[in-house]
Amino acid sequence: MKLTRSQQIVVLVLGVLTLVIYGVLVGTIVRNSRQASQASPPDVQTAEPTPSPTATATPTPTPIPTPVPPAPQTRYDLQVANEPENTALRLQRGYAYIALDAPAHAIADFDAAIELNGNLAEAYAGRGQALFHTKEWTRALEDFEHALALNPDMADAYAWRGHLLFQQGRYAAAREAFRQAIELDEADPWKHILLAQALLHNGDTDEAKIEYTTAMALEDRPVEAYVGRAMVWAEEGDLDAAQADIASALDVAPYDPVALNGQAWLYAWYRRDQLGQAEQMARRAVEGAKGDFEKARYLHTLGWVYIQQERYEEAVEMLEEAAALATVDGEVVYKEIVEHLEEAREGAGQ
Q1: How far, in Å, CA of 186 to CA of 179, rounded?
Q2: pLDDT tens track for 295-312
Q3: Is residue 262 helix, strand or coil?
Q4: What angle separates helix 121-133 from helix 137-150, to the nearest 10 degrees?
């Protein structure tokens, strides 16, 4: 099934967002301090067989348990150890864990804060973000709505709620949530980027361009806004303007996976005489991806490059991995990955 250009563009737009959400909502830059230690589960003991009178019993080896990864280091570890009932510290470390791609540890801190004070909207909103990354979207949405019930003016909760709704394909509700978030906090560039993504998906290219440009005015040369606006230009058929914005993104951050994937995407969809470069840049984007969803989108770009090169078996491999990473509740969130996987399998004769 062939996709419209708007549907094709949505894939990369979603990839832009994942990197943005790690940085904008976490207000403190996390630096390494002391390694936080966490004990591994105790060994599972297996009873040895009873020796028989005529044979020597062979001991059953004790299974080696899978160790629980320790929590990453944060600047708050010592403070939390000294003040475990300090909800502010729990919130700060929870958000730091999200930035360090350790959502399970973030959930533990937010749980502790909620247990200490069940009226903390920030704790529910933070836990919702962590649950989003662990793919527990039903619980995440409940937490965002709980946060808004406690604090109806919480702009970030509206933005995250809209982000999750958009991922679920509930586009009209997502746009409304983004508009509410901007009304409460119009100075946050991330919120304008989210709305621009939703507008672009709806085919409102002029309004999407305005929102991306607004984000640029609010933040000095933001990579995500340049890449997003490049997609709008490409949708409108102005490939020179699209390439200019991608070049600006690469000039700001030449190793940023968002910018690399943006260039790979533009080559793969519109300038197919550059597929060799597209492959290299997509691979570098995959290597720099943070989290399952972002990696899935970059793998999708790489898989599409392979389809254009008629390297169908390699495309199947990339797209199967992308589909596995983007699966929530048994379904692949990004339908474009599924559609291109079917096309690659057909090309490979599978």
Answers
A1: 9
A2: 999 999 999 999 999 999
A3: helix
A4: 160
